[in-house]
């Protein structure tokens, strides 16, 4: 037998949402991708970086992604020493665990939220604890003082879509003795965010992604905002060339085109609110969503049945077999046309 570390041998590995090969034949509402293309300036910037003959690719990229880092810092109102860019925010989640949790030490997150935290902790050999959600989205059995090394709060919650009030997150920051990582993958679709808490509490880290709100999932771009001591640690751990030249050009162009960004986000929010209302009309219960997806439960509470019937019609949504989620579906918000087709299919399925 090859001498793998036991935790690697025993782990199952994360299973991402299904990406069909014949993509054009599906309405794809299962991985919270943006239905609109990124800003046209992103394509132009990538082509400009590439140049006529691609010769720029001979040379390594700028190791710290300086230009994109400065642009993000300016956008969020921080000094660049408080910001780091990454190859997807998944890279940052991974490196936060590597920076703060020794093998055998504990990290925690909310169940249900993003189970990839658990996979990353397993790789590190850290222990994982989860806290369930009460009726009012309070954290069940959360101790007055949480002594683990990291607590991941997905806000807005995925897959349920609700968001925690700022006062709740601030209280949590005071109760977590390690780091509170607010995973704001969907914050651009919400009304608020925790960036102000990064300045106020030294143990708060905010992570963002350009995958969803900036329509750049295929480019792999994420960022984190935290105190310089935290950013310095994350800079030591990362791949020194974590963002390639095209990704750096794309990030800079996308962050600079705030007009385009705001219009796309607004369209998705409008479609989301319209689709929620229509689902309720046909008897679904829908959790009010602050993301670009929503969690909806059919009248018979049989999420699997509706998932299969949509699948047969080439509409792909997300069903989770976990008992706390199997009654419903997570549906990403596509274009208005895609959501009208999905609604018509749901009416037919009954
Ligand atoms: C999509 C998602 C991520 C990962 O973002 P990438 O930047 O694509 O790696 C992280 N957290 C949550 C909750 C997500 O939904």
UniProtKB/TrEMBL annotation:
UniProt keyword annotations, A-Z: Amino-acid biosynthesis, Aminotransferase, Histidine biosynthesis, Pyridoxal phosphate, Transferase
Residues modified to N6-(pyridoxal phosphate)lysine: 212
The reaction(s) this protein catalyses: L-histidinol phosphate + 2-oxoglutarate = 3-(imidazol-4-yl)-2-oxopropyl phosphate + L-glutamate
HAMAP family with a match to the protein in the record: HisC_aminotrans_2
Protein name in the entry: Histidinol-phosphate aminotransferase
Pathway: Amino-acid biosynthesis; L-histidine biosynthesis; L-histidine from 5-phospho-alpha-D-ribose 1-diphosphate: step 7/9
Subunit structure and binding partners: Homodimer.
Location of the Aminotransferase class I/classII large domain: 26-346
EC code(s) of this entry: 2.6.1.9
CDD domains: AAT_like
GO biological process: L-histidine biosynthetic process
PANTHER family noted in UniProt: HISTIDINOL-PHOSPHATE AMINOTRANSFERASE, HISTIDINOL-PHOSPHATE AMINOTRANSFERASE-RELATED
Swiss-Prot/TrEMBL cofactor(s): pyridoxal 5'-phosphate
Major enzyme class: transferase
Domain of life: Bacteria
GO MF annotation, one: pyridoxal phosphate binding
Family: Belongs to the class-II pyridoxal-phosphate-dependent aminotransferase family. Histidinol-phosphate aminotransferase subfamily.
């Amino acid at each position: 037998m090859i001498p793998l570390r036991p935790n690697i041998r025993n782990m199952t590995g994360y299973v991402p949402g299904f990406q069909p090969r014949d993509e054009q034949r599906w309405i794809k509402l299962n991985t919270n991708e943006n239905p609109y293309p990124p800003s046209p300036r992103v394509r132009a910037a990538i082509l400009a970086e590439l140049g006529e003959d691609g010769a720029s690719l001979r040379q390594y990229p700028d190791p710290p992604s300086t230009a994109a880092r400065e642009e993000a810092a300016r956008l969020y109102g921080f000094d660049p020493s408080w910001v780091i860019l990454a190859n997807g925010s998944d890279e940052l989640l991974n490196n936060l665990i590597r920076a703060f949790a020794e093998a055998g030490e504990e990290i925690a997150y909310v169940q249900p939220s993003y189970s990839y935290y658990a996979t990353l902790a397993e790789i590190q050999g850290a222990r994982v604890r989860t806290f369930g959600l009460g009726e009012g989205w309070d954290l069940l059995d959360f101790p007055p003082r949480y002594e683990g090394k990291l607590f991941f709060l997905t806000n807005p919650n995925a897959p349920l879509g609700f968001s925690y009030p700022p006062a709740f997150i601030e209280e949590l920051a005071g109760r977590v003795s390690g780091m509170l990582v607010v995973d704001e993958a969907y914050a651009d679709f919400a009304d608020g965010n925790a960036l102000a808490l990064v300045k106020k509490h030294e143990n708060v880290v905010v992570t963002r992604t350009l995958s969803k709100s900036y329509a750049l999932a295929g480019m792999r771009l994420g960022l984190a905002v935290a105190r310089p001591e935290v950013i310095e640690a994350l800079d030591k751990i990362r791949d020194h060339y974590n963002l390639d030249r095209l990704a750096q050009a794309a990030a800079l162009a996308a962050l600079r085109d705030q007009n385009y960004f705001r219009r796309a986000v607004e369209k998705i929010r409008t479609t989301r609110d319209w689709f929620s209302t229509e689902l309720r009309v046909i008897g679904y219960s829908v959790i009010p969503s602050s993301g670009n997806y929503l969690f909806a439960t059919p009248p018979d509470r049989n999420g699997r049945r509706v998932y299969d019937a949509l699948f047969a019609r080439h509409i792909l949504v997300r069903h989770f077999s976990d008992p706390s989620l199997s009654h419903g579906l997570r549906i990403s918000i596509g274009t208005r046309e895609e959501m009208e087709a999905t609604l018509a299919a749901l009416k037919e399925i009954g």
